[in-house]
Structures are given as structure tokens and as C-alpha cells.
Amino acid sequence: MFSTWRDGDRVRSVELAPLGGGRYRVTVDGAPFEVTAARLPDGRLSLTSEQGVTLAELTAAGARRFVRLGHLDFVLEREASGARRAGRARGGHGAGLDSPMPGVVTRVMVSAGDQVVKGQPLVALEAMKMEHLIRAPGDGRIRAIPVTVGQMVNGGVPMVEMDEAGG
After folding, report:
1. In this structure, are residues 36 and 23 in contact, taking their beta carbons and an 8 Å threshold?
2. Over the stretch 61-72, which tens digit does the pLDDT of each residue have?
3. Are 76 and 67 in contact (CB under 8 A)?
4. Three-state SS string across the chain, please?
């Protein structure tokens, strides 16, 4: 099974080939590895590879997948026919800086005026019993943080406004 997913501003190709007995060959962006997957009673997955065991949680919401691998959070969105969608105009709050779903803001890690680098955590949101990190899509400066800790937000609400470097 082949699919294409948006991971922040990157598009990743993923191929999954079952090998039997809960084993899979997974190829991400051309890099193959093998993993054994077992569903745990609480709904999480135990993934065993050469690197050891990682617990995974997956929440599906339409074309989006909210994935926690160990302590890492990802928001992936299925790409329609592998085509990359145009991002929002620079200088706006930008793709990935909105709340991915309804939840409660648990941490604000930056302030207006801060310089940030691509991938830096900006705001944390608790939703569906998971923490989702809103990360900087690129290097830039924080223009505003229109949310506060403890605030309930709906999906699609701007959580960070930032100006990207070179934009």
C-alpha cells in the first residue's frame, strides 16, 4: 500500500508491505525498515524494530492522522493523489499554526517578538487525551500568540501568528 502524507511543510511517501505475523516492511521517503506491530488492550500499538520498542497512538480525523510515537507528536495529512497543496501566504498565521482540533491550550513556549527556528515547539494543545505540539513551519519571528494557557479552542483557530524569514 502506497500513500503520500504532509508532515508540516514536507511531503513524505510511505509504502507499507505486510510480511505476515504482524511484521511489516515500511519504506518512508525511500528508506526501508522492518517493524512488528501489536495492538495493546488500551488501543495503542507496540512497534518493535532494530531500534527497540516504541509505543504509538494514532487518532484519525478525516484526512488527518494525529500520531504519537513515544514522546514525539505528529500531525499528518493525506495528500490527494500525491499533489502538494499550496500553502497560505507568508506573513499569515500559516498552515500548521492553527489548532488541529478542539482542545485546551496546555503550554505556550514562545512570546511575541521571539525568533524561532523551523520545527521549534511553540504551543501545546491537549486534545483527544493526547498532547499536540504546534511547531514553527520555518525560521522566523513570532508576531502574536492569540491563545493563553487553559483556553479552550476549536479546530482551525489560529494559535500562533508568525512572519517567516525571507517572506
Report:
1. yes
2. 777 888 888 888
3. yes
4. CEEEEEECCEEEEEEEEEEECCEEEEEECCEEEEEEEEECCCCCEEEEECCEEEEEEEEEECCEEEEEECCEEEEEEECHHHCCCCCCCCCCCCCCCECCCCEEEEEECCCCCCEECCCCEEEEEEECCEEEEEECCCCEEEEECCCCCCCEECCCCECCEEEECCC
Q: Which of 92, 78, 103 is nearest to 137 (CA)?
A: 92
Q: Nine-digit cell at 60?
A: 484519525
Q: Residue 105 corresponds to which cell in the numbers above? A: 491550550
pTM above 0.85, yes or no: no
Residues with Cβ within 8 Å of 134's Cβ and at least 6 positions away in sequence, in order, are 96, 97, 99, 121, 122, 123, 124, 125, 159, 160
pLDDT tier at 125, thresholds 50, 70, 90: confident
Angle at 160 between CA 72 and CA 11, to 5 degrees: 50
pLDDT band at 118 (very low <50, low <70, confident <90, very high): confident
